[in-house]
Design goal:
The chain is mainly α and 302 residues long. The longest helix is centred in the N-terminal third of the chain and has 28 residues. It contains 12 helices and no strands. The mean pLDDT is 91. Helix 2 packs antiparallel against helix 7, helix 2 packs parallel to helix 12 and helix 7 runs antiparallel to helix 10.
Length: 302
C-alpha cells in the first residue's frame, strides 16, 4: 500500500514546479516569444529564413524572459519593493520561493539563453555579440546595481530603446546578418508597445513605488502627460505598421489594424481614470500585444 508520505512528496514537488512556472510569468514569456516571431517575420522581407535559426531564435527567448522575471523579483524583494503584505499574487515572493535560489536559477536561465544567442551570432554575424552584451548590461542596469536606472524615471525610455527596438533588431539580424531600413522601422513597433506597457504598470503602481523611494515617470510628470504619452505609444505602433505596409506594398501587413478599437478602448479607459491602482489592469495591454504580434506575423507571411 502507498503511504500518505509517499503521495505527499510528489504533490509537493508538483506544487513547487507550478510555482516556478507561474513566477516565470507565462503571459510575459508568450509576449516576448511573439516579439521574436514579429522580428523574424519582418526579417523574412529582407532575406530568406533558415529554419533552425528561426527555431533557436524563438527558443532562447523562453529562458531569457524567465531569467529576467526571476531577477526582477529578486531585486524587488532585496530593495523592499515587494513585501509579504504588499506583493502581486504571481510573484516569486508570494508563491513562497526561496529568494537566493531564485537569483541562482535566474542567472542559470541567462546562461542558457546566452549560449543560444552566441550560436546564432556565430552563424550570422559576430558584431552582434557586443550589441547583445550591451542589451543585457542595460537590463541589469535597469533592475540592479547601486542606482537602478528603472528607479530614476528611465523605465519607459529603456523599454522603448532596449526591450523593444534593440532586441527586435538583434533578433531580426540574427536571421539576416544585416540591418536594413525595413528592420529598423519594424523594430520601432515593439518599442512603442513595451514603452506603453511600462508606463501603464508604473502608473498603476505609482503610490507603492513612491512609498519605497522608487521614482518612475508618472511621478515626475502630470497625470495628463502620462495619459497623452500612453496614447502616443499605442498610436506609434499602428503608425509603424501602416508605414511598413506602404513601403513594402503589402496590404496584409495592415492586419494589426484590426485591433485599433481595442487600443482605442484602452486609451479612453486610461484617459478617464485616475492615475493609480484603480486604473484598468495592464493585463489587457498584454493581450493586445499578443494579438498585434500574431496579426503582424500572419500578414508578413501571406
Amino acid at each position: 500500500m502507498t503511504s500518505a508520505s509517499d503521495t505527499a512528496l510528489p504533490v509537493a514537488r508538483a506544487r513547487q514546479l507550478r510555482s516556478w512556472v507561474v513566477a516565470a510569468g507565462p503571459p510575459l514569456v508568450l509576449v516576448i516569444v511573439l516579439q521574436g516571431l514579429y522580428a523574424v517575420s519582418a526579417a523574412r522581407h529582407v532575406e530568406p529564413l533558415v529554419g533552425w535559426r528561426v527555431a533557436l531564435t524563438l527558443l532562447v527567448l523562453v529562458p531569457d524572459c524567465a531569467g529576467r522575471r526571476y531577477w526582477n523579483d529578486y531585486e524587488d524583494h532585496r530593495r523592499g519593493l515587494d513585501r509579504p503584505d504588499r506583493v502581486r499574487a504571481e510573484s516569486a515572493l508570494a508563491l513562497g520561493l526561496d529568494m537566493h535560489r531564485l537569483r541562482a536559477v535566474g542567472l542559470g536561465c541567462f546562461v542558457v539563453a546566452w549560449i543560444g544567442l552566441v550560436v546564432l551570432a556565430v552563424a550570422s554575424t559576430l558584431w552582434l555579440l557586443p550589441v547583445i552584451a550591451l542589451c543585457y548590461l542595460a537590463y541589469f542596469g535597469y533592475a540592479g546595481g547601486p542606482r537602478p536606472l528603472g528607479h530614476h524615471a528611465l523605465g519607459e525610455a529603456l523599454d522603448f530603446l532596449v526591450t523593444g527596438v534593440a532586441v527586435t533588431m538583434v533578433l531580426a539580424c540574427l536571421n539576416t546578418g544585416r540591418i536594413t531600413g525595413t528592420i529598423a522601422v519594424a523594430a520601432l513597433g515593439p518599442g512603442f508597445l513595451f514603452a506603453a506597457l511600462m508606463l501603464h504598470n508604473n502608473a498603476r503602481d505609482m503610490d507603492k513605488d513612491r512609498a519605497v523611494g522608487k521614482t518612475t515617470l508618472p511621478q515626475v510628470v502630470r497625470p495628463e502627460v502620462t495619459k497623452v504619452l500612453y496614447g502616443v505609444c499605442l498610436t506609434g505602433f499602428y503608425a509603424v505598421v501602416a508605414g511598413l505596409a506602404a513601403a513594402e506594398g503589402s496590404t496584409a501587413l495592415l492586419l494589426p489594424l484590426l485591433t485599433l478599437p481595442w487600443a482605442g478602448y484602452l486609451v479612453v479607459a486610461v484617459g478617464r481614470s485616475r492615475v493609480g491602482p484603480t486604473m484598468i489592469s495592464w493585463a489587457w495591454l498584454y493581450y493586445l500585444m499578443i494579438a498585434d504580434f500574431v496579426l503582424f506575423s500572419i500578414g508578413a507571411w501571406l
